Every structure is written in structure tokens, then in C-alpha cells.
Predict the structure.
Amino acid sequence: MIITYSLPLDVASSDQYRVSVSQGTKTAEVFVYKVNAVWRSNKSKDTSWASFDMSGPVTVKITKLSGTFAANTRVLPSAAKLTAKVMGNTVTFTLDRPRQVALDEGADISHPILIFANPLEKEKDVPKPNTPGVLYFGPGVHTIGSEKDVSAYHSIYLAGGAYVIGTLKLGKAQGVKISGRGILSGEQFKEPKGPHLIRSESWDSQKVLVEGITLINSPSYNITLAGREHTIRNVKMIGWWFSTDGVQPGENALVEDCFFKVNDDALKLYHSGTTVRRCTIWQMENGAPFQISWNMPTDNSGFLVTDCDVIRCEHEWNNDNEAIICAIHGGKGHMSNYVFENIRIENATWCLLSLQIKPNEFAKNQTPGTLSKITLRNVSITGPLKKPIRIKGLSATQKVSDVLFENVRVAGKHLKSTADMSFEIDPNTTGKITFL
């Protein structure tokens, strides 16, 4: 089955691509959206994307409206093993199941296109309009303004074809659901560091679910949730500013099957009990795909990141936060027990890992704490890498310790010791770095 959405009025379609999907004898056109770059150093001039729901194998046909595709165009992530058939200005490939993928034409990322193939919605999960406690946005454009308070609702639903301009604020949220196949856009904010697209600041919040929607043009975080036991699932994010972090999900949270093309940290791994799985990340020039700490003041432990793909990383500057896995820990907390396993990284040539304890301008009046028990297991990066792996504490008591590299490969080479690539390690402020 294929489900496409009605074309939203007053929203311009992409001038770069046309997309259709087919299954058996059925073929349907899919609306192709486009968002333009907003920051002077953005390497993509724009990003187009198409979104639909599916079950069973579906063939996707992408037509370039000007010029032809490179002969070596491929579908990312490579681990999906989807074969692109290139014929001039068209590319076709078959999706075996719902996925979030990107076309890759090598070094040319000026006009990328993304395909968001969603699973079918279950009838029980789709609320009816005008139901008490439900804020329902049907197909079309809706302008809601900055930080619309939705704390009075138990369900906020953005139907396929809904294009909602504004941001959402949750209060003390208990079991609130934000879902659908629509779009939430922060395009009205013309400067960075505005409000977060979706936020809850109450640590009494519990079990918020954000599922299925697409977030674009955020001036700050896409999603930041205080509280615990939240779930963020199948959410797609495209943001351009230096402050467009992806997700900070609170304690004992689950982030799964999400897509990030953001220009600050994609995943904030700050609060205990966070699990991230099956996510796909296109990291832009700023931030880290996996940020362990920017100055956490409290102790946190128990993090699992598994079965994720970083399909591109645009890093090229000597900033401290330019690494796939990164910590700049100036806070007094002890951050511990991180496991990164089955992580596949491609189109990335800068830095794999940077763990530092250091005072900085964002951690005033704090005595920095410690980092410990960080495991990289079954991690591969195409490389070769221009920057060393960096592991540096601050003192003999403010250490980075118990770092394990287990089956880690850089440019096809298995890391068996620090001699296998460039490392920058301070022996006086680190302890127990192990290779298996």
C-alpha cells in the first residue's frame, strides 16, 4: 500500500526534483518540498524532500528537473544496500521497507534530495477532528505563532499535508502525543537562537511521544524535553542555523528511527538512561552527531546508541565540537557508561572521537568533573581522518578513563593500538584506554 498526501496550498514545490512512487500497477506523484539554506557557511544551497507512507516494496523514481544525475549516484545509507539505477535525469530504486534515505552524488551536495518513507499509521493512532483534548491540524497552511501553549491537549495531530508555522510549548506534560505526517516549521524566525520548535521545561513531564512529523527551519533545538520516559520516533529534522540541535530527550528516553540534517549537535546524550537506535544523521558543518556533554552539572550514566548511520559529516574547522562522538565537559557532573555499537559512518574525513574535560565559557563557576566508561564497539568510519582521536582530562582527579575500542575500523583498518592512527592522549589526565 502507498499513501501520499494532498498538496498543501501556498507551499512552493521543489524546483529541483519530481518524485513518483509505484507498487504493482499503481503509480502516484509525491509532493516534493524544499527548504533553502539560511547561514553563510551552509554547504547545501537548499534541501528537497518527499514524504509518503508505505507497506510492502515500493519503487521510487526521482527526476532531476535540470541536468542529469552523476553516473555514480547512490542511495545512502550504504548499509541499506539499495541499488540506484541511473538513466540520465532519473534515478530509480526499490525500498524494501519504510526508511529515510538520501541520494548521494559524491562531492556535490548543493541540491540534495531526501526520501522519507513512513510506515502506515494505525487507525487507532489517528484522532478525529473536534475531539475534546485534541488539537488537530488538517491539510493546508496553519500559522500558530511562537511557543503556542498546547498544555491543555493530550494529542496534537498534524495530518499529512498539514504545514504548521510556529513552535509548540508543553507545560507539565503527562502522556501527551504529538504525531502525524505533517510539517512544523520555524520559518518565521529570521535569526538563530529563537524558541525551540517543541519544548517542555518541566521535569515533572512524563511519557511524551513525538512521532511521524517533519521539523524544518528551527532557530534552535528541534525537540528539547525535560522530564523522563519520553519517546521520539520517526521524526525527520532539517535545520540550518548554528543552534539547530536535534534532540535532547530527558531521562530514560528512547529516540528511534529518526532522521537528522542539522547544524548543531544531533543527539544530546546528557541525561541518564537514554537509548538511541536506528537513526540516520547528516551532520552539517557545526556540532557533533553524538554529543556526550556540554558541561553537565549533574551525574548521569547508562547510555546506549546502537545501529545508527552517519551518512555525511561536513566538519572542516578546528572547533572543539567537531567530532562524530564528542564531549566538552566543563560541568561538575560525572558522565559515565556510554556504549556506541554498530555505528556506520561515511562521507566523513575529519575526527571520529574527541573527549575533553576543560573549562569553557558555557560552564561558568563550575569545577569540571569526570568522564568514564565509554565504549566504541563495531564502529566503522570511511575516512581517512584528518584529525587525531583526542582524549584529554584536566587533572589527575578530573580524568577521562575506561575508554574501550572494540572492533573499530578507520578507512578499513582495524584499530588495535594507538599506533594504528593518530591519537592525542594526555597520559597524566587519562586512564585505561583499551583495544580489542
About this structure: The first strand starts at residue 2 and ends at 3. The chain is about 0% helix and 50% strand. Residues 301 and 336 are 5 Å apart (CA to CA). The chain has a mean pLDDT of 96.
